[in-house]
């Protein structure tokens, strides 16, 4: 018995022809294969394919017009990703999955993608190393850390947390802040200088229930379904693929566990890219909610902490609290400072 695609996945003749024509060109097909790996800028794709920026931009314009690719502007940068519109996403990814990964051109593109992403990570690592001793001072340029920490504690609540994970632990401040409420905690960071600073800070604060591990946030050295609480504090804006980091955080959660994301709301301060290695200029609630839903998590609360009135040099900090719904818990811990989503 033959099966028909779900109505939401069917494409009209004109839409299908437009999409097929747009994809039926070697460079554009290579661009689609790259974007299947995650969001990229025009500059990234220019470096990977070795073609001029005007040429890459023309190809991307055709792909956007055909509905195969979406464009998202952040300040002076634009990020491109595969469309997740009705019908396009499933059909396009199914077609791309049939490409031979051993094809020489596609293999070279993936190798160059790895190199480009490594270069971004190295730039961020150099920034972290240069700022390791004054990292909390850099954060102090933004909304009050004291206010953020009060909001974090309110979101976490007074319920005892047996196991916690801090991804991108940096100075270890989150481990120190949460230590009275946690049985056992692990902080993961890729940068050795930051790890040394975190260990020194925890020792000075007398924190004995936390350990530090070196590891990649995209492949943290932790077990699946092992933590009651995962915190991702001021990390996502440094990453090429923040959605992937959210997936890893969700992987680490136990059923009923909670994920707390703290980062900036959308802004337009380009200087943060140039001087502080930021890859993303904040995140909308819609973007975060979409990533959480894709991981099977429920967004249960969200809050914004704006800077003082008239202080244009500071940024709004946002908190998102999500829960793994695989079990039903009695009640959420107190989140009086958060708005119910």
From TrEMBL:
GO terms for biological process: methylation. GO terms for molecular function: DNA-binding transcription factor activity; S-adenosylmethionine-dependent methyltransferase activity. It comes from the Bacteria. Keywords: Methyltransferase, Transferase. Residues 8-103 form the HTH arsR-type domain. InterPro entries: ArsR-like_HTH, HTH_ArsR_DNA-bd_dom, Methyltransf_11, Methyltransf_Superfamily, SAM-dependent_MTases_sf, WH-like_DNA-bd_sf, WH_DNA-bd_sf. Gene3D superfamilies: Vaccinia Virus protein VP39, Winged helix-like DNA-binding domain superfamily/Winged helix DNA-binding domain. The keyword DNA-binding does not apply. The keyword Transit peptide does not apply. PANTHER family: METHYLTRANSFERASE (PTHR42912), N6-ADENOSINE-METHYLTRANSFERASE TMT1A (PTHR42912:SF93). This is ArsR family transcriptional regulator. The lineage of its organism: Bacteria, Pseudomonadati, Pseudomonadota, Alphaproteobacteria, Hyphomicrobiales.
């Amino acid at each position: 018995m033959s099966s028909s695609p779900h109505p939401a996945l069917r494409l009209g003749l004109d839409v299908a022809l437009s999409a097929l024509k747009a994809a039926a060109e070697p460079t554009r097909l290579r661009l689609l294969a790259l974007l299947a790996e995650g969001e990229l800028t025009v500059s990234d794709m220019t470096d990977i394919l070795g073609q001029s920026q005007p040429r890459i931009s023309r190809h991307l314009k055709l792909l956007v017009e055909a509905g195969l690719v979406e464009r998202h502007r952040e300040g002076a940068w634009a990020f491109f990703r595969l469309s997740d519109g009705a019908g396009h996403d499933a059909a396009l990814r199914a077609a791309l999955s049939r490409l031979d990964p051993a094809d020489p051109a596609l293999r070279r593109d993936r190798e160059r993608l790895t190199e480009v992403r490594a270069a971004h990570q190295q730039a961020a690592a150099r920034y972290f190393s240069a700022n390791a001793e004054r990292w909390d001072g850099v954060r102090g340029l933004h909304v009050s850390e004291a206010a953020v920490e009060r909001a974090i504690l309110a979101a976490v609540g007074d319920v005892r947390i047996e196991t916690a994970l801090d991804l991108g632990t940096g100075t270890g401040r989150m481990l120190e802040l949460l230590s009275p409420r946690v049985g056992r905690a692990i902080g993961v960071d890729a940068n050795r200088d930051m790890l040394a600073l975190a260990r020194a800070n925890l020792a000075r604060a007398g924190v004995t229930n936390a350990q530090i591990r070196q590891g990649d946030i995209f492949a943290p050295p932790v077990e699946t379904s092992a933590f009651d609480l995962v915190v991702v504090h001021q990390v996502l804006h440094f990453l090429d693929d923040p959605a992937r980091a959210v997936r890893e955080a969700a992987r680490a959660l136990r059923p009923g566990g909670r994920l707390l994301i703290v980062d900036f709301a959308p802004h337009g301060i380009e200087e943060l890219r140039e001087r502080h290695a930021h890859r993303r200029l904040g995140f909308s609630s819609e973007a975060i909610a979409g990533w959480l839903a894709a991981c099977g998590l429920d967004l249960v609360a969200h809050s914004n902490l704006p800077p003082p009135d008239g202080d244009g040099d500071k940024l709004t900090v946002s908190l998102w609290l999500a829960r793994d719904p695989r079990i039903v818990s009695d009640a959420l811990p107190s989140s009086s400072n958060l708005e119910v989503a």
